[in-house]
Amino acid sequence: MLAYTVRRLLTAVPVMGVVALVVFSLLYLTPGDPAQVLAGDTATPEQIAKIRTSLGLDEEAHLRFARWLWHVVQGDLGVSIFSGEPVTHMIGQRLQPTFSLLLLAVVISVGLGVPFGVAAAARPDSWRDRALTVFTTLGFSLPAFIAGYALAFLFATTLKWLPVQGFTPLSDGPALWLRNLILPAVTLSLVYGAIIARVTRASMLDVLSEDYIRTARAKGVAPRIILFRHALKNAAVPVITIIGIGVATLIGSAVITENVFAIPGIGRLTVDAILHRDYPVIQGVVLMLSAAYVLVNVAVDLSYTLLDPRIRY
Amino acid sequence: MKRRTFLQAASLATGALPFLGGSSVAQKKAAKTLKIIHNGNLASLDPIWTTAPPTKDYAFLVFDQLLAVDSNYVPHPQMAEGWTFEEDGRTFVLGLREGLKFHDGEPVRSADCIASIQRWAARDGFGQLAMRFIDGLEAIDDRKFRIKLKKPFPLLPAALGKSNSSQCFIMPERMAKVDPMKQVTETIGSGPYRFLKEEFVSGAKAAWAKFDDYIPRKEPVDSISGGRIPAVDRIEWAFISDPSTAMAALIAGEQDYWDAPTLDLVPVMKADPNIVVSPRNPTGSYYMLQLNHTQPPFNNPKVRQALAMAIDQTQFLKSAVSDPTLLKACYGYYGSDSPYSSEDGAEILKTRSLDKAKAALKEAGYAGEKVVILGVMENPTLAAMAQVAEDLMRRMGMNVQLVAMDFATMAQRRTSKEPTDKGGWSMFVTVWTGSDIVNPGVHQMLRAGGPTAWFGWPNDPEMEALRDQWANAATPEEQRKLAIALQVQAFKTLPYIPLGSLVSLVAYRKNLTGVFPSPVAAYWNIGKG
């Protein structure tokens, strides 16, 4: 298994190299000139040319890519064109809000999605199952920005139970940290939790029709034990897969949620960098996100061995 | 049993209070903090290196100016004790007020001011104009310096104290010596608030603390002149890009002030008794149809004139805002609060007739050349006006294509002088504040030097000559006469077509005090009741 893990991590390197090349090429092909943006409207063409030179933007693309890649290998993602700050520092400042949001969203989604899915599968076609179908369809259908506005209007503006926007670091106290994150995390969880509930239900229905479940029932094992000890563990592989895929999807959805709730996370950083054509920041963020995606997938693959003894690498 | 459980829980909760953040919250509440929703993303901290509005607004808190203009654009001493023109106007001598300090405790010296003027003049248009008159700068002592002029330049105080970007902010000499094409990394100024760099998260959060050693002027505030009083202990900016969230945060009391509320949300805020919505910037925002003078069809002055005949400013303005009190037609090339405000020469803009425009277009020999409009879609007002322009020109019988894009793409494409089928362009809608178009010295779009002019590159030697004459004029009367003559000539050349102005509103909570009219987002003097 150790050899498999190492092999998977090594195969991630060329994947990320391709990602880096594609991102760099896309940026190179995208119209927009950061020197123009930061020089402002009153700059003369000569001033803009000087800024472009000082930023190294007039170099050949392949030289820029090679230099950037060489620095990346050494752990240096470069410096923001606009703020002059190291990209690693900027990403570091934004990690806590995004990770906090994702963590809470995953906890809520899994915490609600799995039990609801199990409960629906336990009694198919019951009112409980139908109610779950209605709620999950609603969860899928509501775009994050609509759900976010609706939740903010109800719980922040009208009832004033929770803040409308912002992020409080964990170091300022877990209660404040949690208060700011509840609404955005619930917003993110609506879609994600719905998917988990649906997949859990479908997977559980498959497992509950297996012979060994019938045998357990015949032996008089308590229904709760059958559901959670015998069935859920065997139904967990597709659920874990969807959780893994979902984490990656959540990173994308977080862009919208961070915008609606003014959370200073990676999503906001990415959007701002794209609008300003801050190339080093865009490249750094995309590379970091692709690395996270690869790691999540490796973790998911490895978790299969814990859930299903038949799977061995 | 229940009582015991309750007591245990209560004591646990009390013990956990510091962990829950109670103490840090209490500390922050003790200080009077002004919380501002700022419209832009503060990225760069060098107001000379970039003209980005958030950087300018940051700089007005951190740095100070030698002189500053009042609401009539008349310069007054700010850091200066006063100034004199000597030797028939060929020497400008300026003395600094006593006790001025930078945020690192060092005194403000003449050497700091000289280096700052030189760095500013290397980048700013009005500064570059001033440098054509300046022979040299030298310190007389630590609190007095002189600027030697090749010939009299009465507009020098107006240049040093101007309110539009970029302003001549005073930095310590070591910062001002940094190449103006590179960013300064320090944030040391001598303004009313110290920047808290350790709390800064670019694009997310910025904070300032009151500078205790700041000595405000005694005069009442008047635009950016007069006393700049740090009226709160701390200022915080939040960058909330979503307008609905920004409004909700203001209404909920999580924020105190919103510097650029979206106009469609104004009625909701006006209905809230705790919110004040007011036009803080008396000059407003001026919209313009920028034309490419190097490519057909707008390289033909008669086509430009035909288009000007069709323009009804009200139609453009109403596409952005329905409230008639927020829009104002402006038949001039200077802002309505400029000392040069006038409608001289604007007859063509008052034609407002599609039929006459069609006839003029036919007479101009328009042969169906494609008009490419660069439409910046991330700004709702610019996007709406670009669509109105497209519709208007279609009705005139022109071959029009509106290309939707973001600002960064437009900023690059507008540099192209190629034909429209090779990545070029014909027009775009742009916006400037009134203080950006207050006089020919700062008015970038009134430059008509061909390749050296702003995007669109109008070429009219007569306009350039009039601008030079204005810069050399000895009296305000003569300056006004020449500035208006420049406008009359501009209405013949049409470097761009004015589309009128919209009132710039701000929204803030009723407990704020001291919010004063200002052409820039200045946050000094604003207190919190």
From TrEMBL, chain A:
Q: Which residues form the ABC transmembrane type-1 domain?
A: 95-304
The record's principal subcellular location, in a coarse class, is: membrane
- Localization, UniProt: Cell membrane
Q: Could you tell me the superkingdom of the organism this chain comes from?
A: Bacteria
Give one Pfam family: BPD_transp_1
- Keywords linked to the UniProt accession: Cell membrane, Membrane, Transmembrane, Transmembrane helix, Transport
| InterPro entries for the chain | BPD_transp_1_N (IPR045621), MetI-like (IPR000515), MetI-like_sf (IPR035906)
PROSITE patterns found in the cross-reference section? ABC_TM1
GO function term, MF aspect, one:
dipeptide transmembrane transporter activity
What is a single cellular component term in the Gene Ontology annotation?
A: plasma membrane
Record's CDD domains?
A: TM_PBP2 (cd06261)
Task: Tell me what topology the record assigns in the membrane.
Answer: Multi-pass membrane protein
Bilayer-crossing residues are 9-29, 99-122, 134-156, 176-195, 235-256, 285-307
Q: Does the keyword Nucleus apply?
A: no
- Which protein family is named in the record? Belongs to the binding-protein-dependent transport system permease family.
Task: Cite the PANTHER family for this sequence.
Answer: DIPEPTIDE TRANSPORT SYSTEM PERMEASE PROTEIN DPPB-RELATED
Protein name per UniProt: ABC transporter permease
Q: Which organism is it from?
A: Reyranella soli
